[in-house]
Amino acid sequence: MKVLVINCGSSSVKYMLFDMATEKRLAKGVIECIGLPEAYFNNQFTGSEETKESCKAKNHIESVEIILKKLLDPAAGMIKNIDEIAAVGHRVVHGGDKFADSVPINEEVMQGLKECFDIAPLHTPHHYAGIEATQKLLSGVPEVVVFDTAFHQTIPDYAYMYALPYALYEKFHIRRYGFHGTSHKYVAQRAAKLLKKPLQDTKLITCHLGNGCSITAVQGGKSIDTSMGFTPLEGLVMGTRCGDIDPAIIVNLLDHHEITPETLNTLLNKKSGLYGISGLSGDLRTVLKAAASGNDRARLAVDMFCYRAKKYISSYIGVLNGIDGIVFTAGIGENSPTIREKACQGLQNMGIEIDPEANNGVSSDERVISTAHSPVKIMVIPTNEELMIARETVRVLTNA
Ligand code: ADP
């Protein structure tokens, strides 16, 4: 069974094709700069060189058309006939409180997605356009939507509510939703395997540290709290996002510094975090390099990043009343021994002891990096959100 995974952004369409009998990825690619003259298509069939070509993609439907044409290219021999695509899985960032699980697409779901436009205006309309495109071009093929927020719908009310007037929740659905759910769910499942424990008996803290960063408390495979909130801005220090701040700072800036809401939005989302503090970059590698060569603001950015992560880890140990394991994943979590070490530093009293040698070892495999006697196992598990979406697609369609 071949499953096509589609992830539509405002100006990009990413895809992966999986053979679900083996869970092998057959192809992946991305069309960027949709609607612009410089639009291009990066594609890679598994086992072959990556190709890059410019393309004319005015919108999402044309982009999906280009991708399908590529997959059907007889020279590539990827698929002979469009019918070989048995199902499509779409990544959708925000399902509001309407969607607590992945769902097969039908009229009602499309309507529900439209109702989520307000809550995630930068994402949902583009996901919607992508679904319309595949519905048109792959008519009759079953499709599933997989939400970044769904995994967090098990968070209890006292953890997802903000202590604001209750009417804001009732009228505007203002509450914590959480994000990166597909990734947290995937690594929690893998961690249980690595720990050789049934998932329902595990207590885990999963740290997804990429450009966006979030930490989740996972009990028995279910999310019970997470650091991102109503939007992906809350929580950790990120590449360019500030994470937790005193909300009165916003009022102060609006009142006394003639900042418009739009400028403020850019400031909090694009000019803060590692970039805002270091003044150099939101890319951790650049900041680490500068810190190593004596740049004090880069040092401060790294220290703040790790301290905030450590604060969340420590508080979730309390929330979970002890843990079996901590998982590090995504670009930073998978690749930066420095960040892992500093985020776990000084937590020996909580049973957390990192093994410097294992932590510094270079590998792309799932692995344990705590000492042999550390009560809490620290793990590095590469995330695979697209495979998880393909798995969810099969699960939903098989149960439908
Ligand atoms: P996204 O959230 O966009 O998917 P990624 O998960 O790819 O992002 O993570 C990007 C982050 O990972 C960047 O800050 C980058 O510097 C960091 N990163 C990637 N490789 C390394 C590395 N070898 N060492 C340190 N940081 C790394």
Describe this entry's structure for a reader:
This protein is α/β, with parallel strands linked by helices. The protein folds into two domains: 2-147, 2-Layer Sandwich (Nucleotidyltransferase, domain 5), CATH 3.30.420.40; 198-385, 2-Layer Sandwich (Nucleotidyltransferase, domain 5). It contains 15 helices and 14 strands. An eight-stranded mixed beta sheet has the order 5-4-3-2-1-6-8-7, with helices on both faces. It has a six-stranded mixed beta sheet with strand order 11-10-9-12-14-13, sandwiched between helices. Helix 1 crosses helix 3 (124-137), helix 10 crosses helix 11 (296-320) and helix 11 (296-320) packs across helix 13 (337-344). The protein is globular, with a radius of gyration of 22 Å. The mean pLDDT is 95. The chain binds adenosine-5'-diphosphate.
What pattern of helices and strands is seen along the backbone? EEEEEHEEHHEHHHEEEHHHHHEHHHEEH
- Which whole number gives the mean pLDDT? 95
Strand order of the largest sheet: 5-4-3-2-1-6-8-7
Number of strands: 14
Number of helices: 15
Largest sheet: 8 strands, mixed
Overall geometry: globular
Radius of gyration: 22 Å
Ends apart, CA distance between termini: 16 Å
| CATH fold assignment of the largest domain | Nucleotidyltransferase, domain 5
Q: Please name the CATH architecture of the largest domain.
A: 2-Layer Sandwich
